[in-house]
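User: Structure please.
Assistant: Input sequence and predicted structure:
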Amino acid sequence: MPETGIIGLMKFLLRCLLTIVSGIAGYQIAQLLMGMDISWMKEISYPHVWSSFCVLLFALCGYMLTPLIWWILKKVGLFFENMLQNVSVQDITVSVIGLIVSLLLANLIAILFIGVPASIGFYIRIGLNILFAYIGTRAFMKRRDDVWAFVLSFFGFKGRLGKRDKDAAQRETELFGVDSSASEPRASRKVIDTSALIDGRILDVAGTGFLEGTLLLPRFVLTELQGVADSSDPVRRTRGRKGLNVVSELQKISGMDVKIQDVSLRELKRDKVDEALVELCKKTDAKIMTTDYNLNQIARIEGVDVLNVNDLANSLKPQFLPGEQVKIDIIRPGKEQCQGIGYLEDGTMLVVEDGESAIGQTAEIVITSMLQTSAGRMVFGKLKR
């Protein structure tokens, strides 16, 4: 498949350049050979034809070798790109400045060795350049913050950058309705997603007073909830109406500040709701509240703090120690032989090792161990004898 755009243009220019340079090299080699004392060269009757042949031959070689040269350049470019992808512009700038300054000093010192024989002085200059380049770059990187501040103040960028940051903060405040420079602590701002509203447990947590601060509700989340509530599927319609009802009840809770943000997916430059939620959290420096596992993982990868309602529910379940006794109904057999399955009051599954004989009965169980996973918790026990 042919490459298009700027890449295709660069490849075309490279091919033209290599063809021209190779043709020139061919002409120079033809002239060099004709100037040598070679017997078969003296037999050439038409030197212009010989020169033209060499030009065309070398130009064709350059034309044919372009894909190989392009492949090598791409590999070298990717190598340096991978090395520099985690390096900031500040570090690169300071390193280059340190390298330039150190090489200037090395060559000034090398002037003192002008009288030294060339066979020795050449190696002295090379050694000085390598030594000073290493020391200078390391020294500048050690004090990169001071060097960067000096560069900004020297070129007058500091004031302009400060004004630009202030203007950007003001634009984001007007767009997202949250001032990132305000005294409001970061932990008090939370963006809530559709899954947490449909789940509904967030309403109980807010009602107890454990959830405080500003709850940010984007307009596109409300639009998504409305779409679910208008669905022809009765299950989805019920879930959507439940989410809208949770929003209404959250607004009625005293001390709970619910802000509807008039921000769209287009303004956040995202096509999907999950991506827009993560971007909004970055813009407003807020945490995200969800029950969606995939959104939870994406937010953590992007460096956004997550308040997972499921994690909260699991952490609030009562803890049991080996040897404690509980009374449950054993309702079905387990996966392994002789196992029985029952459920505690909070919905936690309890696996009874020898409980198959007690299926359909209420029995006292002695807790033996517990297993905590990201999906929930399982408790293991055995019948009390």
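The two ends are 75 Å apart (CA to CA).
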